[in-house]
């Protein structure tokens, strides 16, 4: 298979419309249709079911879409990292989930900045589960991840710290003045259904709570009395006066790790990891 063919197929599979895919790729529709047909003949499978009204993915097509996205992401990452190595880049991109690891992140950046020949660190603030994809496609060089929430599959990691979790409640709620609480008490609040985060594929679990993607959005919903959440203790610091953080006794501990692509050869990444583990 050719990279060009995979790009064509991904565009059609995502748009489910040959005209829109051709427009997105900035090519004419006939050569796009011929390329997809050629790919199907080469693989001896039907990837797309076509009618006069709609285009749908077959089971084989769904598999190729997932594989093709990974392949194209790896190709893009290889291109970026090769250019970085050729130019001896003195900048480093660190991906961090917005609103998390504040104190740890500040200490890490200060300590690394004091190192001889330290690279400039550009922070890339992202939403739930975005760090892993940013690492894999080369848009980020290193990231802070939180176990067990984030996946580290295919990445190298070093553990930095472990912490407990807290429940974030409206300050006026009857449980907000408690010194501690249990998971069952938090999840049993009908007036504050638990917020729902997307999984690694971007889908939300079923439930009555609102769908959220970042802490800013989440905290606003909690202050309005619409939801609650259990999060790492460090993410619950510096709250506004209309919110309260209550330690959750039986919530599993959260481990923060620094992660990077296993194939990374950037000296700046190695230096940052060394500083992080020293801290």
UniProtKB/TrEMBL annotation:
Segments forming domain HTH lysR-type: 1-58
Pfam families: HTH_1, LysR_substrate
Molecular function terms, GO-annotated: DNA binding
Keywords recorded for this protein, A-Z: DNA-binding, Transcription, Transcription regulation
SUPFAM superfamilies reported for this sequence: Periplasmic binding protein-like II, Winged helix' DNA-binding domain
Family: Belongs to the LysR transcriptional regulatory family.
Protein name per UniProt: DNA-binding transcriptional LysR family regulator
Species of origin: Streptomyces demainii
């Amino acid at each position: 298979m050719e990279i060009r063919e995979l790009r064509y197929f991904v565009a059609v599979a995502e748009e489910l419309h040959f005209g829109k895919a051709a427009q997105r790729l900035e090519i004419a529709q006939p050569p796009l249709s011929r390329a997809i047909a050629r790919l199907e003949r080469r693989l001896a499978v039907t990837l797309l079911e076509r009618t006069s009204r709609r285009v749908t993915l077959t089971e084989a097509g769904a598999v190729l879409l997932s594989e093709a996205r990974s392949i194209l992401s790896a190709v893009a990452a290889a291109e970026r990292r090769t250019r970085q190595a050729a130019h001896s880049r003195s900048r480093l991109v660190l991906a961090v989930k917005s609103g998390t690891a504040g104190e740890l992140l500040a200490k890490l950046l200060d300590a690394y900045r004091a190192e001889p020949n330290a690279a400039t660190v550009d922070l890339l603030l992202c939403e739930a589960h975005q760090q892993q994809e940013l690492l894999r496609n080369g848009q980020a060089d290193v990231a802070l991840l939180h176990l067990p929430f984030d996946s580290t599959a295919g990445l190298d990691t070093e553990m930095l710290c472990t912490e407990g979790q807290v429940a974030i409640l409206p300050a006026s709620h009857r449980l907000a003045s408690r010194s501690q609480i249990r998971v069952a008490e938090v999840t049993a609040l009908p007036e504050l259904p638990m917020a729902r985060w997307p999984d690694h594929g971007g889908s939300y679990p079923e439930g009555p709570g609102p769908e959220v993607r970042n802490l800013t959005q989440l905290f606003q919903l909690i202050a309005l009395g619409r939801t609650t959440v259990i999060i790492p203790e460090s993410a619950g610091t510096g709250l506004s006066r209309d919110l309260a953080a209550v330690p959750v006794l039986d919530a599993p501990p959260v481990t923060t790790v620094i992660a990077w692509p296993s194939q990374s050869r950037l000296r700046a990444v190695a230096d940052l990891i060394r500083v992080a583990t020293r801290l």
